[in-house]
Automatic annotation (TrEMBL):
<dbReference type="InterPro" id="IPR000014">
    <property type="entry name" value="PAS"/>
</dbReference>
<feature type="domain" description="PAS">
    <location>
        <begin position="159"/>
        <end position="211"/>
    </location>
</feature>
<dbReference type="Pfam" id="PF02954">
    <property type="entry name" value="HTH_8"/>
</dbReference>
<dbReference type="InterPro" id="IPR035965">
    <property type="entry name" value="PAS-like_dom_sf"/>
</dbReference>
<dbReference type="GO" id="GO:0043565">
    <property type="term" value="F:sequence-specific DNA binding"/>
</dbReference>
<protein>
    <submittedName>
        <fullName>Transcriptional regulator PpsR</fullName>
    </submittedName>
</protein>
<dbReference type="InterPro" id="IPR009057">
    <property type="entry name" value="Homeodomain-like_sf"/>
</dbReference>
<dbReference type="Pfam" id="PF13426">
    <property type="entry name" value="PAS_9"/>
</dbReference>
<dbReference type="InterPro" id="IPR011785">
    <property type="entry name" value="Tscrpt_reg_PpsR-CrtJ"/>
</dbReference>
<dbReference type="InterPro" id="IPR002197">
    <property type="entry name" value="HTH_Fis"/>
</dbReference>
Length: 476
């Protein structure tokens, strides 16, 4: 039908436009592939034929539309739009574009943009349509994204308002500082009063310049180290503008990929309760004491340590050792750690446990450990006081000049002049070996498995030596 109409008398016109004459079947194929959907509508409004582009199969089979009225496959508003647009359409006066929504009895709706052509033979209308569903889907996605952005924007405004109200009404002076620039990002009115300025003047100012005798790099490093230390004493500073002595407690956090420093300010001249004097003294001892202090959990994982312990182990910072096992710093590793934890859990305390510490650079130093078990909390802690004994060991003599001498050592001394050096060395080896085994058994509370690991012996070898030195009971 379409091929016959287009090629009856319009063949010369098409040829005059530079197109060769086309057979009716070829014209039908050209029309079918030129649009996603093509309809031929009779003057009475009936659908004579429907052609769907074979390369656009999403419409499915629409052959059931043929013979129906066009009004039956359009939504009511599209019916009105089609009638208004097609009334002024005349042959030879160009085409008209119109967007229509189809309503199929199978309960789906899709928009199509049609180009309407009035044919001169019988005033039929040729409708060449382009599927608008992809564009409609993109538009829906854009609308949904816009709505989501508006909701996020409203949520952000709400959260910012809450944050601003809480910061302004808070009685605690607080300052937010950027870790990358060292400049003040935000502060409340209470902090501005202590620093001696107003919020507008302090925003963007370098925090180090607001205190006497402080440089930016040194100040930010000190604040970061203080924030990484749990239960650290506040840093006492003098505000440059107000000349007030302030106590600063920093906290580091991350927001939107940026590290921020929250500084809580307090006047240093506020009278402190008497009970705080002990806490301050203990805090000073922890940070400035000569003996290392380490806090670990029940498994020996380091939770905190003071500067003296970092010096003993040549560690760069607390962050470098926090979360590591204490066994990493003991020469005998897990053997020492297990002996420590088992003994302290059993007795609550352990005094003068001799061992060797391993530094981060594979060095070793002699040390004595004293341990205390704190089990009065939900998560018990092991507290160790570490003392460097390497200097004391160099001053000690193997055999004292005066005083009581152990019996094994006396027996070795009596061999001098009565036996050859070879026999004396052999006897001395047995004495030292026996003393080491006895010491290991004493440290492990007679736990022979742990003692064998401490001495790097197999259990069979340990039992052989126990029998050799008479350290086994008769019934064993």
């Amino acid at each position: 039908m379409i091929g016959e109409t287009l090629t009856s008398e319009g063949r010369d016109t098409l040829a005059g436009g530079g197109l060769p004459p086309l057979a009716p079947d070829m014209v039908r194929d050209v029309v079918a592939t030129a649009a996603d959907i093509s309809l031929m509508i009779s003057p009475e409004g009936l659908i004579r034929s429907v052609m769907v582009n074979p390369h656009h199969p999403s419409f499915g089979q629409l052959s059931a539309w043929e013979g129906q009225r066009l009004d039956e496959v359009l939504t009511p508003e599209s019916v009105t739009k089609f009638r208004l647009r097609s009334e002024g359409l005349e042959p030879g006066r160009g085409s008209i574009a119109v967007e229509l929504n189809h309503a199929d009895p199978r309960s789906f709706e899709f928009p199509v943009r049609y180009i309407l052509h009035r044919l001169p033979e019988d005033r039929s209308i040729l409708m060449l349509g382009r599927d608008l569903r992809p564009i409609a889907e993109v538009q829906q996605q854009l609308v949904a994204a816009q709505l989501a952005m508006e909701r996020d924007y409203e949520t952000q405004r709400e959260m910012e308002t809450r944050y601003r109200v809480i910061l302004d009404v808070s009685r605690d002076p607080m300052v937010l500082v950027s870790m990358s620039t060292g400049r003040i990002v935000d502060l409340n009115g209470a902090a501005g009063m202590l620093l001696g300025g107003v919020r507008q003047d302090l925003l963007g100012a370098a925090i180090a310049q607001e205190f006497e005798g402080r440089r930016r790099g040194e100040f930010m490093e000190a604040m970061a180290n203080l924030a990484a230390t749990e239960s650290a004493a506040p840093l006492e500073l003098v505000a440059r503008r107000s000349q007030k002595r302030l106590l600063v407690v920093p906290r580091v956090f991350r927001a939107a990929g940026e590290r921020l420093l929250l500084c809580q300010l307090d006047p240093a001249d506020v009278v402190q309760p008497v009970s705080d004097e002990l806490l301050n003294n203990l805090a000073r001892l922890y940070h400035e004491g000569v003996d290392g202090i380490v806090f670990t959990d029940a498994e020996g994982t380091i939770r905190g340590a003071n500067e003296a312990f970092l010096n003993l182990t040549d560690s760069s910072s607390l962050a470098a050792i926090r979360g590591r096992s204490l066994a990493d710093f003991l020469a005998r590793g897990t053997v020492d750690l297990r002996v420590l934890i088992d003994s302290v859990r059993r007795t609550g305390q352990l005094r003068l446990y001799a061992t060797r510490l391993t530094t981060d650079f594979a060095g070793q130093i002699a040390a004595e450990l004293s341990a205390t078990w704190l089990d009065d909390r939900e998560h018990p802690l092991l507290v160790l006081v570490v003392r460097d004994t390497s200097r004391a060991d160099t001053l000690r003599r193997p055999i004292p000049a005066t005083g009581v001498v152990d019996e094994p050592v006396r027996n070795v001394m009596e061999l001098v002049g009565n036996s050859t050096l070879k026999d004396i060395v052999a006897e001395t080896t047995d004495v030292v070996e026996k003393m080491c085994i006895e010491t290991a058994l004493e440290l492990t509370r007679n736990n022979r498995v742990a003692a064998a690991e401490m001495l790097s012996l197999s259990r069979q070898s340990l039992y052989v030596k126990l029998r050799k030195f008479g350290l086994l009971n008769k019934d064993e």
